[in-house]
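for the writeup, i need someone to sanity check this before i put it in the appendix. the sequnce is what the collaborator sent (i think, or maybe the updated version? ugh). structure was predicted straight from it, no edits. if anything looks off just tell me and ill rerun, i have time this weekend
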Amino acid sequence: MPGPLSWWRLELACPPELEESLLWKLELLGIPRVALRHRPEAPQQRELLAWLPAADWPEAERQRLEAALAPLGEPFALQLTPITWTLQDDEDWSLSWKQHWQPDPVGRTLLILPVWLELPAAHADRRVIRLDPGSAFGTGSHPTTRLCLEAIEALADQAGGSLGPIRVADLGCGSGILGLAALLQGAARVAAVDTDCLAVRATQDNAALSGCSDLLQVGLGSAQTLAALLEGRPADLLLCNILAPVIEALSPTFHTLLGATGVGLLSGLLVDQAPGLEQALLEQGWRAQLTAQQGLWGLMTIRRVA
């Protein structure tokens, strides 16, 4: 019998396509103690872990949780593997959670480094994004985030190794990881917004951890708030890693966020959603092209129609 100060540890294989859905569903069910782990050399092979107070999760409740998660795989024709449940004695779960994070190299130049870890000598030449993982979506593990990070690096490469003194707008910033990557790749300033107050706080905290607080301004809100932060001067680079229907709904505001010669990187979309989104963006005056993909997820690059 579990004691009053014991925990159930949930372990579940997490295909990249289901990461966002699983995290959303667990948060909706009131399960905040969650981690994702993967080996840096195998980012596609992820495992989701969660810690649930044993007193609140008897067998019947755990079975109901499994039944609630199972349908999440249906849109992707995936079947969730059985959940492994392990009963643990009381512990500082946050310390246990931290053990599952490792330094995570992305592309050729970036390294996502949890704040409690030292910089490994093997990655000393990389540009380090200091992050407190788990405080908001955007740890670098999800394919859409990695696609954006790699695309930012590619833009820097095309510009001779640095983005240069450009202004960046981050719409739906999550943890702030994309804006921080842009700064590390040479951008001058970042304006960022999110509709979640926890994301705004996480972005502020992560900017401080990476020493970028004076270069990154973040506000609570959506496109209108972002336009206000830009003070009427649209950015040179727009970052938007949110779901395709939301991107389409926000697309009429892009002209206030991205300048005439600017570039937008849009992710969070499934590859099969690209044609419809391309047409919707064209109607708003943007030429859109699917320029990268990882599994079922894609990244779209947009520019103003000449």
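The longest helix spans residues 143-158. DSSP finds ten helices and 14 strands in the chain.
thx in advance!!
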